[in-house]
Amino acid sequence: MLEYIRQNIEESVAVKEKLLRDEALIGVLAKVSRLCIDAYQSGSKILICGNGGSASDALHMAGELVGRYQMERRGVAAIALNANAAVMTAISNDYDYENIFSRQVAALGRAGDVLFGISTSGNSANVEKALQEAKKRGIHTVGLTGRRGGKLQAHTEYLLNVPSDSTPRIQEMHILLIHTLCGLIENGLCEQGFWTEERD
To answer: What is the pTM (predicted TM-score) of this model?
Structure first.
């Protein structure tokens, strides 16, 4: 039991070390933060979607943005598309499960918004369809995946593909990337005086 615990911690640390040395991914994360800051400055919003553990990550990210991450400030607009059970089950029942996110993107998204599609495999069909719908509507697209990127990489402007093939390790790194991104967004908006302007 103790060995299993140590093994999991060691594996997580090893992937974090790979992430730390992945200059390309770090550069993409910086670009994504700039994209989100610019979107908020122009009055746009962030949409996020995923399944299972990735759905939890989407909810987590929306909570950090609408609520707060580390800074006491006014909330910014972020919607987790997997949050509304009534909407999701209605779409699943009337159409099919693959459309649960794309239909919401069509209804809620506007050109200039940013859609985050989260999938450890990169092959979630409903997330892929959401990204395709977003691109048609002039919505920026960001994918969070594992090492291979899967089908999502063909539909994203920016791909954050964690250097691992292990689902638990990928999910752990996704939360790290999300936390880092939320901090960058908060700091960037604060530096640009976003919360001191008369926007309310």
So the answer is: 0.95
